[in-house]
Amino acid sequence: MRCGIAWTPNCGGSCKEMKSLLKIDASVQKETVELLKRLVGIRSVNPPGNEDEIASFVKGFLVENKIDTTLVPLEEGRSSVVARIPGSEPGSVVLCAHLDTVNADEEKWTVPAFEARIDGGRMTGLGTADMKSGLAAILEIAKLVAESGITPKKSLVLALTADEERAYRGAASVAESGLIDDAQFLVIPEPTAGKAYCGQKGELWVEAEFVGAGRARLDAGAGGSTRSCPHRGSASPLPKKRRDFRRCRDEGGPRSTSVRSTGDGR
Ligand SMILES: [Zn+2]
Fold first, then answer.
1. Cα distances (angstroms) measured from residue 251 to each of 202, 207, 215, 217, 261
2. Domain 2-187's class?
3. CA of 112 to the centre of ligand 1 (A)
């Protein structure tokens, strides 16, 4: 399988070749696990955020490995991190992870939330999966590339952002910083059950036909308005997960929560 990222001087883009070029072996795996343990030990729950501590740890790791690194301040006590290994051609591949985690109700945890423990081949600790594991992997990849002396064709950029668990303001400030303006590809190692998914910025449009008796309601969800609209067909209720539709917009409909009379919607 070709990885799609061609590296100079002699890698034709095959993952096997790249793996050997970067010397990914058991010691790298062990080192990554140790790095993950340290990341889990740094509290970066959001709210309130306080990503400065983990941001400065991450920056220290990258600088130690001679990688050009910039802190992108968000607000007091909160920062994102952008790092870059220059490529030989214009454009960049961005590896992106977030620095914050959801909050932890520690009283309900049966293991320490801020201590990574391994039991039966599984690690526990807040953020182990979402997404300090991805963060650790990104950091280790950057280290390996820097150590290898390989010059990638495209610059390798790390965008490690604050505030993902709430309002994505860290990602927004990184985008506005100009530091990733040359991005052509973005890889986000969020946990997705071990499968890779392709995505694209923008809206997702879903074609759906709503079936109901005469009139039905489309609930806008908490805090939103509830509207009535005509429907055709049988007396089937709206989908149970109707809140999933709260962002659907009828083609030509005046409001995001309205469905036109034919019952079709996008
Ligand atoms: Zn996440």
1. 17, 10, 19, 17, 11
2. alpha beta
3. 20
| pLDDT tens digit sequence for 146-169 | 999 989 999 999 999 999 999 999
- For residue 206, which of 265, 258, 263 has the smallest C-alpha distance? 265
Distance between Cα 190 and ligand 1 center (Å): 5
Query: DSSP assignment of 62-99, as one string?
Result: HHHTT-EEEEEEEETTEEEEEEEE--SSS-EEEEEEE-
For the chain, residues classed under CATH 3.40.630.10 are: 2-187
Taking alpha carbons only, the member of 69, 127, 73, 75 closest to residue 100 is 127
Counts for the chain of helices (H) and strands (E), in that order: 5, 11
179: CA distance to ligand 1 center in Å?
22
The model's pTM is 0.72
258 Cα to the center of ligand 1, angstroms: 31
Distance 106 CA to ligand 1 centre (A): 19
